[in-house]
């Protein structure tokens, strides 16, 4: 059956019922604004919040988009590997930190496949937390950076070989360029003279950065940078805060897989240092805030300096520039392809999103010296 984010309540209740261990459902509500999966918050009847969440009152129900993740069971398997890794005894943490875990079905399985072959899973909900859509101030920026480093630190001892590559090509910019070429060939004549002005702007923008866009993959091939477990999507609204504003969780573990920490650093900064946010319509005025970037990097490096190499710092500026550019390229390609990957609210949504990321990239480029100096001072 087709399902939009409002869903069919009865159908959703049936699916959620697979994970409730007999408890009755009180409420089902859409959660967050993810671009790929469908996510719901389930509240159970007759439960009250407990300190250790032993009998959770709420949990997250998610349908994994199988068009994006060709093997949804591997996404779930990676999360199980992470839970097992985090379950191992370590030195006590200095403050609260929670990582969502998988909740089993009645039959003790990690997911439920519905009659249409869709994969559903339940995940613990981090109580007493809140999420913000954009970075509010320097203190928040520092916490976002700290949260990413906390997560990187926890997974730095996990062997990347234990994680499946759930999304081949994810954050490999040359792969996105190749996809883009293919879509272009089907859309335009050789000179693309038939494209409108905004499309022309995007086409030239990509063209001018085509060679440089290989920078991180080249560094990987040269052995300058090394693959390790990464989060894959550490945007601001995936970092939860407690009431005092401290980072306490990095959620949305769909893209946990082997990669470069640079993908995460770039993604975190492109998301957090864009005060207008990635969904703004006002793309002409998008800028990259280097003050927030400095605070975010300070927060990140306060922990991450322990596991970064000198060469990791050498590619930090490029990473920040590249992931903004890459996301713009992904949105633009999807716009040209007819919006087949990212959920959209209107036909030009992905074009506007691409323009936002390209303007952000431009702003990063204009402030290259400032950013490089910030990174240099923090080494
Ligand atoms: C997608 O679905 P969501 O919002 O968690 C995308 C990320 C992008 C992000 C941009 C698997 O994440 O890579 O950065 O949109 N996830 C995937 O908002 O492609
Ligand atoms: Mg995500």
Question: Could you explain how this protein is built, in words?
Answer:
By secondary structure, the chain is of the alpha+beta class. Helix content is 42%, strand content 11%. The protein has twelve helices and ten strands. Strands 1, 2, 3, 4, 5 and 6 form a six-stranded antiparallel beta sheet that branches. Helix 4 packs parallel to helix 10 and helix 8 packs parallel to helix 12. The longest helix has 22 residues. It is globular and about 60 Å long. The model has no long low-confidence stretch (mean pLDDT 94). The site of magnesium ion (MG) has 5 residues, from loops. The site of magnesium ion has 5 residues, from loops.
List keywords for this structure.
binds magnesium ion; 12 helices; 379 residues; globular; two-stranded antiparallel sheet; binds 2-acetamido-2-deoxy-1-O-phosphono-alpha-D-glucopyranose; 42% helix; 11% strand; alpha+beta
């Amino acid at each position: 059956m087709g399902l939009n984010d409002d869903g069919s309540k009865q159908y959703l209740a049936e699916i959620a019922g697979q994970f409730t261990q007999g408890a009755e459902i009180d409420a089902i509500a859409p959660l967050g604004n993810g671009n790929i999966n469908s996510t719901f918050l389930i509240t159970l009847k007759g439960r009250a919040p407990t300190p250790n969440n032993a009998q959770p009152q709420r949990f997250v129900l998610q349908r994994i988009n199988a068009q994006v993740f060709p093997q949804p069971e591997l996404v779930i398997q990676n999360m199980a590997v992470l839970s097992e890794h985090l379950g191992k005894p370590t030195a006590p943490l200095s403050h609260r930190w929670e990582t969502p875990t998988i909740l089993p079905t009645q039959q003790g399985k990690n997911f439920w496949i519905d009659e249409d072959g869709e994969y559903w899973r339940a995940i613990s909900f981090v109580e007493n937390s809140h999420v913000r859509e954009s970075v509010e101030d320097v203190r928040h920026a520092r916490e976002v950076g700290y949260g990413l480093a906390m997560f990187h630190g926890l997974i730095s001892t996990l062997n990347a070989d234990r994680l499946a590559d759930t999304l081949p090509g994810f954050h490999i910019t040359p792969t996105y360029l190749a996809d883009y070429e293919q879509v272009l060939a089907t859309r335009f004549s050789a000179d693309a003279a038939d494209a409108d002005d905004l499309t022309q702007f995007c086409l030239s923008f990509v063209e001018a950065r085509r060679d440089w866009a290989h920078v991180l993959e080249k560094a990987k091939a040269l052995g300058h940078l090394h693959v390790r477990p990464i989060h894959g999507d550490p945007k601001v609204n995936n970092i939860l805060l407690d009431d005092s504003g401290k980072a306490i969780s990095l959620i949305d573990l769909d893209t946990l897989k082997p990669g470069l920490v640079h993908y995460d650093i770039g993604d975190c900064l492109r998301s957090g240092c864009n005060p207008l946010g990635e969904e703004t319509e006002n793309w002409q005025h998008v800028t990259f805030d280097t003050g927030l970037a400095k605070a975010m990097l300070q927060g990140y490096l306060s922990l991450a300096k322990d596991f970064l190499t000198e060469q990791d710092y050498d590619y930090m500026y490029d990473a920040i520039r590249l992931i903004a550019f890459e996301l713009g390229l992904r949105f633009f390609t999807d716009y040209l392809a007819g919006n087949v990957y990212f959920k959209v609210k209107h036909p030009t949504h992905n074009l506007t999103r691409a323009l936002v990321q390209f303007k952000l990239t431009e702003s990063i480029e204009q402030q290259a010296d400032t950013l490089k100096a910030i990174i240099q001072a923090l080494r």
